[in-house]
What we know:
Elements: E1 16-20, E2 23-27, H1 37-41, H2 61-68, E3 76-80, E4 93-97, E5 103-112, E6 118-127, H3 142-146
Antiparallel strand pairs: 1-2, 2-3, 4-5, 5-6
Amino acid sequence: MAAMAVDQPPARPTLKEYEGEGIVVTWEPTFCIHAQHCVRGLPTVFDRDRRPWIEAGAAEADRIAEVIERCPSGALGYRRTDGRAGERVAEGIEVHAEPNGPLHLRGRIRIADEAGRVIREATRGTLCRCGQSANKPFCDRTHDRIGWRSS
Length: 151
């Protein structure tokens, strides 16, 4: 008798943590679209050529948090360990279509798969519009490689 396939929940993405003074920076590589807001915004903390690539002690926690909140995919996050408030999240969900790119989401986001299982809860995220991402429903910037255009 053949074994029946069991519908397994999706694997939990890798979460890496980097501790600094008053802040813990988190990074989920599965969701990173390499928009480079972090690298351009605070290169002393975020350096793709360094290992580890995040040095959370290289800047003040407030400045690190400010730059992380620009990460469109939500791959970068943080927890404050100094008693300061974390990321403020507006009520509702804001959706912005990047020209020739993904949908950017902000707010209290909950994304579920076809079976209704929650696969992502976050404050920021990017969803594929070209239909070619290897990480659907999330963007992986395949649209850049294939020259996809939204118009």
